[in-house]
Design goal:
heterodimer, A: Alkaline Phosphatase, subunit A, 2 domains, two-stranded parallel ribbon, 37% helix, 9% strand, globular, B: 5-stranded antiparallel β-sheet, 4-stranded antiparallel β-sheet
Chain lengths: 428, 829
């Protein structure tokens, strides 16, 4: 019934500041109890899936109910994956925007005086809790597609800052490799010099605008703050580099990707590098807004993802849409394979110490209700595995799902976005 | 639409008085604008029909007596004054769209009733969104767009800056809209990288010594000869080894592709046939002087220098041989046919040219022996840039004092910051950076790089600063000069504009008119004309369409992408009417496009105006290939996309975003439908029809153009539609029987509201009747692009006053742009 959406919409908050402030307090309190670190990966897939051939209709263990044709590639992992039905991202309104508020839960069109306003994303929130002991608190990976192309909607990645601004992601494997494993060529003295040089440039930056700043409107001063913030971030990053200078970057467990990779090949390589990043404990939080159109092109599907999402018009489109579903599930299955075959630095199986979440705001076509939600991995403890769970209530808030998953992975989180509680149905 | 007419009239009268006045200053005119506007509220008639719908189908359960699910609809705010009522309306729309309400066991509305109710609510919600997002005309400070950054850098450093120095901007609306810009660390890094590279290259070009000119010879036949020889000799050697019975491992050392017995056998089998080509090529070039036909080669050069290229020909048929450097035509060398001779041309290298590609265009009958590139020489025609004049004396003096350096930094920062001033402290901080660099052992030239980079990455350079102390007010003339220069040129003001602003003359309409003419005539205005019309039309969609390889290779893709902007440049510079966007009796095309459209006219290099033959369907924007192709979906047309663009751009009535959760349309198997019949299925579902009825029928008028923009009178129904996945043939299973596509005559009839029309001519007539809306769309977009914010209800008065002036002259485009820059809104922050 619709009443659920309606009553819950009243709870929705759209501004970011209210949420951001209390969370900021936890900055700097390192999670020292990282005896067995947990790693979390969020994958956003853009447009949804084919209605009849992807979504299971029956609840129960996959071993009993079997996998739908669309999910068939996950067969070998059927006892390790969980799918949850009847979830809806209450903030989402754009049927072409599978990722804009996927990890924020905000209704981006509901702030007075603003055409668009998002709030902080889940990965950024948890990075402050579990990302303090690694070289990168969180890694943001993304596609290069335009706002309408892959069904992700507005934004640059799944990640959004405290101010609700889009965080750009790393889009190509070579850059990600350099970020993770590229060895710095500078000596400690050179690095110190660079830090000093940047600091004095940054001092200058403020005074270049100082005389005028008083005359700027408050709104403009806030905009300028974005600039100063990013400049301060540079200083913080170099300081962090200095801090990490004693710890050389890990040796890459994978080969350096070749230049100019794209499409399917690039996606597969990004997956390898995600695994490598976790394996070397370079970070514990990764988001990846996956490319769709470029991957499909490399797979001989010449329709754009939007056309595919409207597969009902034409049997050829439907066929292609089904091919798409299977392809992306194959990719997920082989990503899980890689997690299962690797160990982390503590010698623990990587799959056992990780949580992989896969989904979108969009179910199928223009439908936002009952969004696809799949997770796997041992980091989520005491929750059901190998099952399709149909929640009793339609339009159960997606934020409740996030809360349940993260709490099961031991992340100290009391609430997020429009959450109203945890989902008992998932818990063993 | 009802607007406060009284004030409106007053405005118009005042304006016309102003124009006749000797010294007129438009900025003082009625800045105080009333917020009294009725746009966006549901007009009474529509509200009544909504209330009737609710009372008929909803009141039993959601009315005064009963409020199932706590929902009460008789008290809904039909004006949607805040987000709470917006949410309530959204909920109503959601349940109507999903078909959940009214419940199955209750009285159901007719399809037409439902369609119109959904259409009304959608429209109201959409305009409420716009109204509630309004800022009351606040312009958010913004940073330079990529286009403006390149223009600003060129102003400082003098050279064209390559496009790829910065990544492209990502934006939803116009890229100048400050409230939609977000500045991130990534962007700072991009600006830093670009700025640092430019400063470094410029400083180096000033201090790197000019080596003694040396000739560098290139023989065009050498590369093909050497490769033919290598191939020939390798094959012969492999064959010798095979004949001698050598083991494959040994043969593989000569040719890795011949590494096992099978490959040896294959090689032997094919040898006779395969040796022919390298052998003849090798023998024909052996000992020969020169190579017939044109050729190209790449050679390292020194940036910002002059080289002399001498071409030695064995024999030439052409009297003129064109020379291209980095794919740009730089001129031709002259020959008199027949004899062995040589001819020279000068090549100027740019700041970014560390190597250049030289192409000598020739026909088959021309035989070129060799070319010599001699240089580098000093480029004596080079006009020193601002940067050079300021920096050169300092960096060329190894003992420059700290004071001299500080003075140089100040001069550079002054101009870079558009003479808007900065704290004295700033130069001291930069001097510190310089000192740090010097102390680390760098030369003067190397040590100025960081502080100069700091200037071009400072917010005072990257942000367009306009002061504001609370309420909306007229910007200073200096700020106006900057605003208008970035609008019309995409770069900062020049000395003349700065001087006029300083002497307070820019708000004089006569003075400004002369400046406007001067600015628009400058090549710098090309950037504005191109970028504006491309953003207005949303042509970037064209880039996402997969074209057949043939069209990409032939250069069609680039030509088609440029057609609209080349057309628009002509419209504006010749002050032609806006009508031309709907239909024109000429087109602006290059050779590629003329051929594509089937024109016989002879076209020189580049774009030119061509009168249309009477029979041609082209003319205006709607018959341009890029627009038509943008409105495609896979290998078929999409009347929906074409119609939506026309609705938004030409009728100034953007389509609301598609609603979530509506049922998808399913097609029955085996039906042979035309595109129009397929799209018409939207009509069957009220939820779809509510919007699509206003979109699709417009697009039908263009159905005579196929998805590649070619004219057609028939289409293949059911067959040509959307080729999806490459169907894999499964063994053992019979391939599904496919219906043969059927050739059906095109039906290009459509309608807009109550106006029915036939084909593109009919569509044009209807659009011409609505040209006020097109004028509104273009005018508002120009204004929005120019001031960097969305146009809101607060601007209505100013906009409509100016439009009614323009209407009297049938909307001439150049005048329209002048009206924009001299409007009250344009000079207000």
């Amino acid at each position: 019934m619709s009443i659920h959406i309606q009553n819950r919409r009243a709870f929705l908050r759209t501004g970011s500041t209210v949420l951001a402030l209390p969370l900021l307090e936890s900055v700097g309190k390192a999670n020292t109890a990282a005896v067995s670190p947990k790693r979390i990966l969020f994958i956003g897939c853009g447009f949804g899936f084919t209605k009849d051939t992807f979504f299971p209709t029956e609840a129960g263990r996959f071993a009993d109910i079997g996998l739908t044709p669309g999910m068939k590639p996950l067969e070998r992992h059927r006892n390790d994956i969980t799918m949850v039905s009847n979830l809806t991202n209450l903030g989402a309104t754009n049927p072409h925007g599978g990722s804009t508020s996927y990890l924020t839960g905000a209704n981006v069109n509901n702030t007075p005086g603003k055409k668009f306003h998002n709030s902080v994303s889940l990965d950024q929130v948890i990075a402050r809790k579990i990302g303090l002991d690694t070289r990168f608190p969180a890694l943001t990976l993304s596609d290069t597609g335009g706002p309408s192309q892959d069904g992700h909607g507005q934004g640059l990645s799944l990640a959004w800052s405290d101010q609700g601004h889009p965080i750009p992601g790393i889009t190509n494997p070579l850059d990600l490799y350099a970020q993770l494993f590229g060895q710095a060529k500078e000596s400690p003295e050179e690095r110190e010099f660079r830090l000093a040089q940047k600091r004095s440039i940054l001092d200058g930056v403020t005074s270049s605008f100082k005389s005028a700043k008083q005359k700027l409107s408050r709104n403009d001063q806030e905009r300028l703050e974005d600039y100063f913030q990013s400049v301060r971030q540079i200083e913080q990053n170099i300081s962090r580099e200095v801090e990490w200078a004693q710890t050389p970057k890990p040796k890459a467990p994978v080969r350096e990707p070749r230049k100019g990779m794209d499409g399917l090949q690039a996606l597969k390589t990004m997956h390898q590098l995600i695994v490598a990043a976790f394996q070397t404990d370079s970070t514990r939080v990764i988001t990846y807004r996956q490319p769709v159109a470029s991957v499909l092109q490399g797979h001989g599907v010449n329709l754009n993802p939007h056309s595919l999402s409207h597969y009902g018009l034409d049997p050829k489109r439907r066929e292609a849409a089904e091919v798409k579903d299977v392809l992306f599930m194959q990719l997920l299955a082989s990503l899980i394979d890689q997690f299962k075959s690797k160990q982390d630095l503590n010698g623990k199986n990587l799959f056992e110490s990780s949580l992989i979440s896969y989904g979108s705001n969009i179910r199928s076509g223009h439908g936002l209700r009952g969004c696809p939600a799949i997770f796997a991995g041992g980091a989520a403890e005491k929750v059901k595995k190998g099952e399709h769970i149909i929640l009793p209530e339609q339009d159960t808030p997606l934020a409740n799902y996030w809360l349940t998953l993260l709490q099961s992975a031991g992340v100290p989180l009391d609430g997020f976005s429009h959450s109203t509680g945890t989902l008992g149905e998932l818990v063993i | 639409m009802i607007r406060c007419n009284v004030t409106n009239k007053k405005c118009v009268i005042r304006l016309s008085v102003v124009i006749t006045a000797l010294v007129c200053c438009w900025t003082s005119e009625c800045l105080a604008q009333s917020n009294n506007t009725s746009k966006g509220e549901a007009p009474a008639k529509e509200e009544q029909s909504m209330r009737l719908f609710f009372s008929t189908y909803c009141a039993r359960c959601h009315g005064e007596k009963k409020q199932n699910g706590d929902v009460r609809l008789d008290k809904l705010d039909h004006r949607i004054a805040n987000h709470a009522s917006l949410s309530a309306w959204q909920d109503v729309l959601d349940v109507l769209n999903t078909g959940e309400m009214p419940p199955e066991d209750q009285k159901q509305p007719q399809k037409t009733e439902l369609t119109s109710a959904i259409g009304l609510i959608t429209q109201n919600i959409s305009s409420a969104h716009k109204r509630l997002a309004a800022t009351g005309g606040v312009i958010s400070m913004r940073h330079l767009t990529k286009r403006e950054y390149l223009g600003s850098m060129k102003d400082l450093f003098g050279d064209d800056v390559p496009q790829d120095i910065l990544p492209d901007d990502v934006s939803g609306g116009f890229d100048t809209n400050g409230s939609e810009q977000f500045f991130s660390l990534k962007q700072y890094e991009n600006f830093y990288k670009a700025g640092n590279e430019l400063v470094q290259r410029n400083v180096h070009s000033l201090v790197s010594p000019l080596a003694r000119p040396t000739p560098l010879r290139h023989d065009p036949e050498i590369v093909p000869f050497e490769s033919a020889r290598a191939q020939y000799e390798q094959m012969v050697k492999v064959m010798e080894l095979i004949d001698a019975g050598a083991p494959p491992a040994e043969i593989a050392k000569v040719d890795p592709k011949v590494a096992d017995a099978g490959q040896v056998r294959l090689f032997k089998q094919r040898f006779e046939k395969r040796i022919v080509k390298p052998k003849t090529q090798y023998e024909s070039l052996k000992g020969k002087k020169g190579l017939p036909g044109g050729f190209a080669y790449t050679v390292d050069v020194r940036p910002r220098s002059v080289y002399s290229l001498t071409i030695n020909a064995v024999e030439t048929k052409s009297s003129e041989v064109g020379i291209r450097v980095n794919d740009q035509n730089i001129g031709a060398v002259q020959f008199t046919a027949g004899e062995s001779q040589s001819s020279s041309i000068n090549i100027r290298t740019g700041l970014f040219d560390t190597s250049i590609n030289i192409r000598v265009a020739g026909v088959k009958q021309d035989v070129f022996d060799y070319v010599t590139l001699t240089g580098p020489y000093e480029d004596t025609s080079h006009v020193p840039s601002f940067f050079e004049s300021v920096i050169s004396p300092v960096v060329q003096n190894a003992n420059a004092s700290d004071d001299e350096v500080a003075a140089m930094l100040k001069r550079f920062a002054d101009r870079a910051f558009r003479y808007q001033g900065f704290d004295d402290e700033y130069i001291a901080e930069l001097a510190n950076v310089y000192k740090l660099e010097r102390d680390s052992g760098k030369s003067v030239a190397d040590a100025v790089v960081e502080p100069l980079t700091a200037i071009v990455t400072a917010p005072a350079f990257l942000y367009l600063k306009e002061k504001n102390e609370g309420s909306r007010s007229v910007i200073s003339q200096h700020e106006f000069a900057i605003r208008v220069a970035y609008f019309l040129w995409g770069s900062p003001p020049d000395d003349e504009l700065y001087a006029l602003a300083k002497s307070n003359q820019l708000y004089d309409k006569t003075v400004m008119k002369a400046q406007f003419e001067r600015m628009l005539a400058s090549p710098k205005a090309d950037v504005f004309l191109t970028d504006f019309i491309n953003q207005w039309s949303g042509i970037s969609r064209f880039d996402e369409i997969d074209l057949p390889v043939k069209l990409i290779r032939s250069g069609f893709q680039n030509s088609a992408r440029q057609e609209l902007s080349e057309f628009f440049k002509v419209l504006v510079r010749e002050n032609r009417s806006l009508d031309n966007l709907i239909d024109s009796d000429f087109v602006v095309v290059d050779r590629q496009l003329a051929q594509y459209y089937g024109f016989k006219a002879k076209i020189d290099e580049g774009f030119q105006k061509v009168s249309l033959p009477k029979s041609s369907p082209r003319g205006g924007m709607l018959a341009q290939a890029a627009f038509l192709i943008s409105g495609g979906s896979g290998p078929r047309t999409s009347p929906t996309i074409r119609g939506a663009i026309i609705r938004e751009k030409f009728l100034h009535d953007p389509v609301p975003p598609p609603p979530p959760n509506i049922p998808a349309i399913e097609n029955e198997k085996g039906q042979k439908l035309t595109v129009k019949q397929l799209v018409d299925r939207h009509k069957n579902v009220a939820q779809c029809a509510s919007c699509h009825d206003k979109i699709d029928p417009i697009g039908y008028g263009l159905e005579n153009f196929d998805y590649l923009g070619n004219w057609r009178t028939t289409e293949l129904a059911g067959g040509a539609a959307a080729s999806g996945a490459k169907s894999k043939k499964r063994k053992g299973k019979a391939a599904p029987r496919k219906a043969e596509p059927e050739k059906i005559a095109i039906d290009a009839s459509g309608y807009l509201g109550d106006d029915r029309f036939e084909g593109i001519e009919g569509l044009r007539n209807v659009l011409a009747q609505h040209k006020d809306q097109l004028a509104h769309s273009v005018y508002e977009s120009l204004l929005s692009y120019g001031i960097g914010r969305e146009i809101e209800f607060v601007d209505d008065q100013d906009v409509s006053a100016n439009l009614s002036e323009l209407k009297e002259h049938n909307y001439p485009l150049k005048e329209m742009i002048f009206e924009v820059i001299t409007s009250k809104t344009f000079v207000t922050k």
